[in-house]
Design a protein that fits this description.
about 375 residues; alpha/beta; Rossmann fold; globular
Length: about 375
């Protein structure tokens, strides 16, 4: 298969979709990999390293996008939509539920869109989302600590306080991968931490692990209003796989928050869990509403690209190789990749995306096999 690796062009996005190691695994199996010159520079990976791994360096994005499969990190932006076409497999983060223009572009082009964030194992794990959630969660606390400084518009609060002075009050909405990693760093910095989640099992897990070093509360409107009133830093860590995040912090709650407090909404890729969230960039990362600093950068891990690139490739490489070896047959055979399929030949194949826009969805297998092609499975049943 011909595989393209274009340079990321989203604001300050320095990650790259394939490491030289991943490229070598592909070329050893006879695949051709076309790397746009400079694609890896932001992650301290040179063209020479890709050449040594067997890649062909191309000068333009057009040449990289001309491949049968394109591997990226971030979703295409508007200036890249014209590269989409019906015979293309696009393997990247998509976050379609909060991006109608991209959804429309994928459907209009007929491209096959396989989203990292919805690839899901039988145990309901999200292996390609996990590494970036780990990075974003740890970064969220670091970023919050920075913007709590007065010089960055915050209250002027030190996360761990000092003897005789209270530490920062940190509220984390969500106890999944992002929230757990955010809590780990916040506790380590000596902050007073409260984690909210709808899952009692997740809260019990954190309570057992931290043994009184943080507080846990069930996530409901009453508890959220109660804890953000005294919060210095609120971290939004809510995830509905492939779907739009719910608003847990509403516009009406902001005036009750402390002046100079900070919100870091990691859920911004899925629309945000704060009503006043709007996507920002590393160039212009924050804005203020009612005296509350909002940090809503949609590609947070792009700020630590080398760590992020290798963490991501540790998980994506096996799926990239399967797709290269078998094409769409890999999706037909692999249930995890079936969950990853979001668009195919003008159809939406992920229910949460369709629901976000009031559209119909088609099951991945039905779309791939066609409406008249039955699928026989070992138990004797036939699905159409």
């Amino acid at each position: 298969m011909r595989i393209g690796l274009p340079k990321e062009i989203k604001d300050n996005e320095n990650r790259v979709g394939l490491t030289p190691g991943a490229v070598k695994a592909l070329t050893k199996r006879g695949h051709q990999v076309f790397v746009q010159t400079g694609a890896g520079v932001g992650s301290a990976l040179s063209d020479d390293e890709y050449v040594a791994a067997g890649a062909v360096i191309v000068l333009t994005a057009e040449e990289a996008w001309a491949a049968q499969m394109v591997v990226k990190v971030k979703e295409p932006i508007a200036s890249e939509y014209h590269y989409l076409r019906s015979d293309l497999i696009l393997f990247t983060y998509l976050h379609l539920a909060s991006d109608k223009p991209l959804t429309d572009a994928l459907l209009a082009s007929g491209a096959t869109g396989i989203a990292y964030e919805t690839v899901q194992t039988e145990s309901r794990q999200l292996p390609l989302l996990t590494p970036m959630s780990e990075v974003a969660g740890r970064m969220a606390t670091q970023v919050g600590a920075t913007y709590l400084q007065k010089s960055h518009g915050g209250r002027g609060v030190l996360m761990g306080g000092v003897p005789g002075v209270a530490p920062a009050n940190v509220v984390i909405l969500g106890a999944g991968i992002v929230g757990t990693n955010a809590a780990r760093v916040a506790v380590g910095l000596g902050a007073q931490v409260t984690v909210l989640d709808i899952s009692h099992d997740r809260l019990k897990y954190l309570d057992d692990i931290y043994r009184g070093q943080l507080q846990t509360r069930i996530s409901d409107e009453y508890n959220i209003e109660d804890v953000i009133y005294e919060a210095d830093l609120v971290i939004g860590a809510v995830l509905i796989p492939g779907g739009r995040a719910p608003w847990l912090v509403t516009r009406s709650m902001l005036p009750t928050m402390r002046n100079g407090s900070v919100i870091v909404d990691v859920a911004v890729d899925q629309g945000g869990c704060v009503e006043t969230t709007r996507a920002t960039t590393h160039s212009h990362p924050t804005y203020e509403i009612d005296g509350v600093v909002h940090y809503c950068v949609a590609n947070m891990p792009g700020a630590v690209p080398r760590t992020s690139t290798f963490a991501l490739n540790n998980q994506t490489a096996v799926y990239t190789l399967q797709l290269a070896n078998e094409g769409l047959d890999a999706v037909r055979k692999n249930k995890a990749l079936q969950h990853g399929l979001n668009t195919y030949r003008g159809l939406i194949t992920y229910p949460a995306v369709a629901e976000a826009f009031g559209l119909e969805s088609t099951s991945a297998l039905k779309a791939l096999l066609g409406p008249s092609t039955p699928l026989s499975v070992p138990n004797g049943k036939t699905y159409v």
